[in-house]
Amino acid sequence: MFDAVSNQSLATQLLAPVVGEIFDPMFAADDTPCRLVDPEVFFAEQPADVEYAKSLCRDCPVQDACLAGALQRHEPWGVWGGQLLVQGEVVARKRPRGRPRKHPLPEQTEVAPSVVRRWALEPQHKDRRVAVGAQQGPGRGSEDRPERAA
Predict the structure, then answer these.
(1) pLDDT tens-digit profile of 39-60?
(2) Which residues contact 2 (CB under 8 A, 6 or more apart)?
(3) Which parts of this chain are annotated as the region Disordered (predicted)?
(4) Known binder of ligand: residue 44?
(5) 12 in a known ligand binding site
(6) How large is the angle between the packed helices 63-73 and 10-22, nearest 10 degrees?
């Protein structure tokens, strides 16, 4: 949302005075990440954008003071001091939008080549032998192959 008069985003209007009050003037220099990028980055909706905002804070000289100040003020949301705050509490990562899964997905495991070969040789899987044909050893499944003309 932009202010028509000053053409600044609402986040910029709200965050700039807070940053100036929180930090010692020495640390509120223009080279801190929160001063160099659009402040809306620190209030992103997408998990990837939140991780980007957190990465901007990694080398910031006021990272610890920023987080402490945000926790003291009970900031409701946003990335402060390299941490994501949701409802005033530090959260490890932002959950994507939408309803979470009721049951977690099962872990994917690799199938042993011997099982793949055995599966391909079973009569009910005859049509799928082409897909795993490269894994069959020489002479296996040859009864289904047409004779070559000499």
Answers:
(1) 899 998 888 888 999 999 988 8
(2) 8, 9, 10
(3) 122-150
(4) no
(5) no
(6) 110
